[in-house]
Amino acid sequence: MEKSLIEFNKKFKEDLLSLLWRQWAAIGVPGYSGGEENSIVDPEALLLFTCTIARSDPRLFDEVLDWLGTNGELINVQRLKMIMTREGFSGRAVLAAMAETIGQGYRARKWKSLFGPAAAVNRPEPLFYSSDDIPLEHFGDADRTFLRHGLSRGKIKSRGQAAHPRYLKSALILRLRALFGVTVRPEIVAYLFAHESAHPSIIARETYFSQKAVQDAMVEMSRSGVISVRTVGREKRYRLDKASWASLLKAEPDALIWSCRPPLFSALERVWLKLNSVEFQRLDALLTSSVLRALMAELRPAFEQAGFGVLISDDKAQKGEQYTQVFLSDMERVLKKAAGA
After folding, report:
1. If you ran DSSP here, which 8-state letter would residue 313 be given?
2. Which residues contact residue 162 at a Cβ distance below 8 angstroms, ignoring those fewer than 6 apart?
3. 227 and 276: one domain?
């Protein structure tokens, strides 16, 4: 792999891990002192992304496990499964091991559908890798739960320092779930809080719930008078009184950004996996450019759905090896926007 790609890949990893730390800190994970997050955190998309990226940061991975032990009841498992299926995240075995780890006792019923069958492997894969992609061997006894899923790591030691998200502004969805329950309604309120108005089909697409579930919930919620509805042409658009909700939630709507994270995180995971595959790293310059061009053709719809499509260049004018630098520049812009949103 050429030098520019090697240097980019190193920074790419650092930037993605920084993004993860920042997002998790915004909903209660301790240990990060960077800037404040302005986007409303999507906990399910973030968890799925973490299952792959945080394997290069054992400390972050275990802090997330600790957070799940404290706040896991606020995770919507059905929505988690929907996002994983629709966006094709790759960390199923890792997620299953995490779910079984935190889904003990009375929690087992909630998380059991994610356990899946135990992996039939003769030689487990190391869970963690160094920044140079070197497998990290654990010391002492291996954790049996992760071993059942084909992953090798040391015993987990919970620190119990994760915070509840009750006062964290970016944890709006989690706070609404704590208030209203883990249903479709928190996402509806969060979306309307960050927008002037919306049709149920738009909210369903952005939140990864069925249109029927969103439609039925919004019709019921409008009967309370808290959410209003008006007809524009043939379309019904719903809105809420942001001033009243801002007082209730102790958050200003103009200070929070809604971003459709599942397709963005899925696309970034695909880039991460491609750049770190041994086969890709052995390609010559021309084949590297060709593979990256094909990858972006596949990922462009995901970036567009996430609102990042304007950052992706038209590749038609770029011939041969030239496209590699275009791809790297596009990814730098995407990461910059993702970090600022």
Report:
1. P
2. 28, 29, 30, 63, 66, 67, 69, 70, 71
3. no
Q: Is 120 helix (H, G, I), strand (E, B) or coil?
A: coil
Q: Any residues with CB less than 8 A from the CB of 328 and at least 6 apart, and which?
A: 4, 5, 8
Residue 68 Cα distances to 29, 83, 97, 299, 314, angstroms: 10, 18, 13, 30, 41
**Considering the entire predicted model, what is its pTM?**
0.94
pLDDT tens readout for residues 73-121: 999 999 999 999 999 999 999 999 999 999 887 677 889 888 766 655 6
CB 152 within 8 A of CB 57: no
Alpha helices, DSSP H only, in the chain?
A: 3-25, 43-53, 58-71, 77-87, 92-102, 108-115, 144-148, 172-180, 185-193, 200-207, 211-222, 242-249, 261-275, 278-281, 285-305, 322-340
Q: What is the pLDDT of residues 13-49, one digit of tens each?
A: 999 999 999 999 999 998 877 666 788 999 999 999 9
Domain end: 255, 273, 308, which one? 255
Enclosing domain of residue 224: 169-255
Query: Has residue 122 been placed in a domain?
Result: yes
Q: Which two tokens mark 3? A: 């030098």
Residues 227 and 282 in one domain: no
In terms of C-beta density within 10 A (0-12 exposed, 13-18 middle, 19 or more buried), how is residue 63 classed?
A: buried
Q: Which helix (H) or strand (E) holds 125?
A: strand 125-126
Query: Which residue in this structure is represented by tokens 């792999």?
Result: 1
**For position 187, which CATH number holds?**
1.10.10.10
Angle (nearest 5°) at CA 306 between 301 and 312: 60
Compute the radius of gyration of the chain from its Cα atoms.
21
Which of 179, 184, 210, 177 is closest to 72 using CA atoms? 177
Q: How many residues does the chain have?
A: 341
